[in-house]
TrEMBL record, chain A:
Keywords: Cell membrane, Membrane, Transmembrane, Transmembrane helix. Signal peptide: none annotated. PANTHER family: ABC TRANSPORTER, PERMEASE PROTEIN, GUANOSINE ABC TRANSPORTER PERMEASE PROTEIN NUPP. GO terms for cellular component: plasma membrane. This is Deoxyribose-specific ABC transporter permease protein. It comes from Paramixta manurensis. CDD domains: TM_PBP1_transp_TpRbsC_like (cd06580). InterPro entries: ABC_transp_permease. The chain crosses the membrane at residues 16-40, 61-83, 89-110, 122-143, 155-173, 204-222, 253-274, 286-311, 331-352. One of its GO terms (molecular function) is transmembrane transporter activity. It is found in: Cell inner membrane. The keyword Disulfide bond does not apply. Its main location: membrane.
From TrEMBL, chain B:
Keywords: Cell membrane, Membrane, Transmembrane, Transmembrane helix. Pfam families: BPD_transp_2. PANTHER family: ABC TRANSPORTER PERMEASE PROTEIN (PTHR43370:SF2), SUGAR ABC TRANSPORTER INTEGRAL MEMBRANE PROTEIN-RELATED (PTHR43370). This is Deoxyribose-specific ABC transporter permease protein. GO terms for molecular function: transmembrane transporter activity. One of its GO terms (cellular component) is plasma membrane. It comes from the Bacteria. It comes from Paramixta manurensis.
Amino acid sequence: MKRLLERRLAPVDSPAAIVAITVGAMLVAFILAGLLFMPFGGNPLTAYGFLFRAAFGSVRALGLTLVQGTPLTLIALATIVIWRAGLGYIGFEGCFLMGAAASSWIALAGTPQGFPLLLPHWLYWPSVLVAAFVAGALWAGWVGVLRVRFGGNDVLISLMANYVAIFLVQYWVSGPMRAPGDLPQTPRLPTESWLPYLMSGMRAHWGAAIALFATLWVWWLIRATPAGYEIIVSGLNPKAARYGGINVGKRQMSAVLLGGGLAALAGLCAVLGVQHRLMDGMSGGVGFIGVVVALLARLNPLLVIPTALLYGGLEVGGSAMQRQTGLPTSVVLILQSLLVLLIIAGDVLRYYRLRWPRQKTVQTPLTEEPS
Amino acid sequence: MNGLSHIDAAFVVTWLAAAVRLAGPVLLAALGEIYAERAGVLNIGIEGTILLGALGSYMVAVLSGSTALGFLAGGVVGLIVGLLLAALYLRAHGSQIVVGIVFNILAGGVATWIYSLVMGNTSSPTITMLAPYPLPLLSAIPGIGAIVFSQPVPLYLTLLLTGVAQYALFYTRFGLSLRAVGENPAAAHAAGLNVLRIRTWGVLLSCLGAGLAGSYLVTAQIGLFRDNIVSGQGFIALAIVIFGRWNPVKALVAAFIFGAADALQLSLQLFESALPPQLLLALPYLLTILAMSGVVGRTVQPGALTQPYRKE
């Protein structure tokens, strides 16, 4: 059998090759996904044109894209912090829900008037931010303890924990926190508890500022602080880190707590910025898409923002396109995942070179070069 | 008094029969997953594979008019998906967690796309489902007969495959190789085993199981296709694998327990019980977390699970 791939003697790992593979994979993903419009009578170029105009073409569109990109950014940052510490935690749906639930609880405490009734209003923002962050940190934290203290498998435990969180929220909104009415959801949160809009006439809210601040902070943390350095070393090589005097368990725990808190802020943004109530099925996979965003950004905090805006924009543009033209929005999901899968597959080219089947490999004899 | 105990007996039989019904598809998926995990590959992508298997099975059943053919189609879809996943997990050296998660998202998109392409916006026709087939003699056994042996054919197939898997894993050369590769790939390689080939078989078998689980859902339980048809059953299958400690027969017991919790939750909703149904729904996941936690005795997972292998 003729082999298509020939093993390279050494993997190519120059930045140029990595950029080329990433860009190439993205192009192929866009082309492949674009072809999927054709059976529905859509021209891929027109479809993409519409999609990107609906996502980035106006101030209003940009606002919607920001709204979609905000939770993705926060969850991607959470992924970066935890994964860089060497864990494979994927329980961000759960953290998101815990953050959402804690924020709604604070905003609803003392209903019908809400939080402001209980405490001076200036205390509301600090307390809701802290409550959401702590809820997420604790939710991720117990998985972290099981992993660090007891050697449990964090990937599988956190995956299962997502469902526990989903059922917990389902129980709250159909039981203790339920609003009178047919739907399992809490009452609408009082207007004063909402995240204010960035400007009038634009759906973007201050959550975007939270996400931006978090990005800079995470970037600074892992680039410039000893704690960040220790987290990364713990992830790269736990044995060497221990030998170097780093308390790996402690660093992994702080990464998990931090990541859980960040992911919970995504839930806060969704509840206080968009839905304005807690309801069943709120997370809808955002915890997983956030992980995908982090991967596409190659676990680099500064690349998270453009990637999250791309992913958020695809979602906004995709649903606008479906409303207007009837072209399927499922292409967006396909595109979002193809981007990552093709980059993974593209990495093969760093280890192997393509050999076309008909081309005869000429064994060039090792001749001495004339000097 | 006597009448009440009659009702109770009827309730228990109905409940346990429902438990077996709910356990069937996830057990089939779990059996496949055991092969992959024993070979050292955590295939989180079975959730998406079940979905695509269900879609393939439904389409073939609708287009051909034969439900049996539809059932087989799910397996074929599973094998095709398996080739793709094996390439990504094993040849491209993608992280198993990453490939699995992303594949599940991809499968969601692909299933919706294909469905709307073929079926358009019309409401989907239901297919003739595989009816319960009471096995002669066995179904006459009091209790067990009504619970286990009056089920549709895929359940019997699943029970049969449980035995096959148990035998294959622990009493054949193939099973020994598979386990060796999952415990210590470097040593297995040194002993002359082709690690990547054996792991490929593990992934293919897990996707075959998941694809057929999708068929099972469509042809014997639901009878039509929707996007949300799988809704976490792949993750339940992962849970069953862990709770069953990577052993097919123990997985059978785990699947039945999980099915029983699920079925009880359904009947409790009818009774307006004070117990929140979510507690029973969350039970499988809670039990799995407990089994995985390392707190109550160490669950010994295959040594090289999630560790990629690169031949040096």
